[in-house]
Design a protein that fits this description.
alpha/beta; 2-enoyl-CoA Hydratase, Chain A, domain 1; Rossmann fold; six-stranded parallel beta sheet; six-stranded mixed beta sheet; 14 helices; globular
């Protein structure tokens, strides 16, 4: 009977192996996604040679004077550095000079990236040779582009609006508001101004994760992103990425920002899907949700919590290092990032309450870096632990001698469903 398993943890912060050791006599089952193998460099190149719904970027960008590449931030685990070199070769082949290609990090209302983090995101060589800026959603340096028919005011980063050629490089992950990230979402809210982001978060409905763009049940929030990108901004193309449970690139989808994104979302729906047997659903005593690869930014924990609803009688433990430590979301915090840092510097750090297992319907979280006060502000009914071995021992005192444990190795992107029980 297997009572140990090894998972990955700490996206962007080592991506290290983490071994979970449970008491002797416990049965540990890894409930992994369908997953897909990692792509080679040649396979990534092929995705650029065979775009979806558009000519090659080298053809599409011909005659353009300059280009902007929008990339997602470190709250997303997208290894953009792997796909940027072939993208730059396409732009070079189109005749756009290196000096006229610029990167913009699209964090929405998350925090900006440091220079070192930008180098990690897009590659050190690229960061050294190309100008890169962080979008600031509170900046006055935005272009006002009117309103959509639904009333959404459009304010977009000036560098992005003014570029002749615009392409977004981001990841496709389940998202409760828009089904899947990627596509035009890197424009709204990625490089949008406060009024646009406020409208997007306040007046758009949430329909749950893993709904594919432009399906019959598609909600106005995703359609508004697409309408803005097509009719107002003129987004030329995307290069969207899917991952496997080791944070390796499993798919690259280049081309039209709707058609390529939809193809990537279908692939993600298949490879992120995790069939759950009736036995696991009913007889598991403890579910361990490893929030990797969405486990760096402290505000992403919610992405993994939907998994817990599938297990009727299990205690729940989320593994969420929150290595970044920041819980900044400027829209909800109602303040800019410098003032947020000042407030944090003025706070005295506190330790979690004495470790104790709660009830089955409570969330238990092991996190090395999630600030105690911020954690309980976001999750007042949950329980925070610092020592992983200790929390496992506390569960050992609570659960049967032959407890059954289910481990979700990449809960941040897994899409759970009932196993075919026909």
């Amino acid at each position: 009977m297997n009572n140990t398993t090894t998972i990955h943890s700490g996206a962007w912060y080592g991506d290290k192996a983490l071994t979970l050791n449970f008491p002797t006599g416990w049965e540990v089952k890894v409930l992994g996604p369908n997953d897909a193998p990692a792509l080679s460099d040649a396979q990534i190149e092929r995705a650029f040679a065979e775009p979806i719904g558009t000519p090659r970027i080298s053809e599409l960008a011909k005659g353009k004077k300059n280009a902007v590449i929008v990339v997602d931030d470190l709250s997303r685990p997208t290894p953009a550095a792997r796909v940027i070199p072939p993208l730059l070769r396409e732009l070079t082949a189109a005749g756009i000079p290196k000096s006229e290609i610029q990167f913009v990090v699209g964090p929405g209302s998350h925090r900006p990236l440091t220079e070192a983090e930008i180098a990690t995101k897009i590659g050190a060589d690229v960061a050294a040779e190309y100008e890169t800026t962080n979008h600031n959603f509170l900046s006055g340096d935005l272009r006002g582009l009117g309103n959509l028919e639904n009333g959404m005011p459009i304010y977009i980063n000036r560098i992005v609006t003014d570029a002749d050629f615009k392409i977004c490089v981001g990841g496709i992950y389940p998202h409760s508001s828009v089904g899947f990230t990627g596509g035009a979402k890197l424009i709204v809210p990625g490089v949008a101004g406060f009024p646009t982001i406020f409208y997007f978060h306040t007046y758009s409905s949430s329909r749950g994760p893993a709904i594919i763009e432009e399906q019959p049940e598609d909600e106005p929030d995703r359609r508004a992103c697409a309408e803005m990108a097509a009719k107002v901004l003129g987004l030329d193309a995307i290069a969207n990425i899917t991952l496997n449970s080791h944070r390796e690139i499993s798919g690259v989808f280049v081309g039209d920002f709707v058609k390529a994104h939809r193809a990537g979302a279908r692939f993600a729906l298949d490879t992120y899907s995790t069939p759950i047997s009736e036995t696991s659903e009913k007889e598991t005593h403890l579910i361990v949700a490893n929030c990797y690869p969405l486990d760096s930014d402290a505000i992403q924990l919610d992405k993994a919590l939907a998994a817990f609803s599938y297990f009727e009688n299990a205690y729940t433990l989320a593994l969420y290092p929150a290595s970044d430590g920041s819980c900044y979301h400027g829209l909800y915090d109602r303040l800019d990032y410098p003032r947020y840092l000042q407030q944090r510097a003025e706070q005295m750090p506190t330790e979690p309450p004495a470790p104790q297992i709660g009830s089955r319907n409570q969330l238990h979280v092991w996190s090395e870096h999630f600030e105690t006060d911020e954690f309980y502000k976001e999750y007042p009914a949950a329980r925070l632990f610092r020592n992983l071995e200790q929390v496992i021992q506390l569960f050992a005192e609570k659960l049967p001698a032959r407890a059954r444990v289910g481990v979700l190795p990449a809960a941040g992107i897994q899409i759970l469903g009932k196993e075919n029980r026909g």
